[in-house]
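**Entry details**
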Amino acid sequence: MAQVQESLQAECGVGLHDFIVPKLYKAREVYIISPWISPETARLIINLVNRGVKIHLITTGDASNRSHVSAMRLLGAGVGSRSAVLATGILLIIIGITFTVLSPIALALLAPGAWLVYRGLRVKARQVHGNLTVRILKNLHAKAIIIPETGLVGIGSANLTSHGLHFNLECWVWVRDGELASRIIKTFQ
């Protein structure tokens, strides 16, 4: 491990799991930002949540990555649920408008359809568990971990997946900077 100064630690190599993960077990609250997570990372998050750590997971809704989809199911935050709510709402509105000609009763579908569209558009973050909030962002590429109480910020190339933590050649930097930690958290809120 290359230690540049007391508040900065940097590492590049294969298998950065032991450089990244142990710091999470010392935290009371953690922001995890990664486009994809693996089932291994989901189990890590569940373990941390069960230990009382408050986790804010910011990730993507990428339904094409099977490992990510499996991980999100493990967390109870299924991928694509926002799209399903929007699609169902739009479908109810279309059916309501289309069949109003046949029966005015079909207008009754407009209200639940509009409510579902509203809910689908409003979903920004979901409280999956008392200590776990999941926020889905489109076009997320950032990889970072923030531990607010110590001002510790980890930034690097590693997705928080099995490959990113164990098999890929990655770089990661830990910086202790409370102001930077606050700015990053505000960016993702």
Remarks:
- Strands lie at 2-5, 8-14, 29-33, 54-59, 125-129, 132-136, 144-147, 152-156, 169-176.
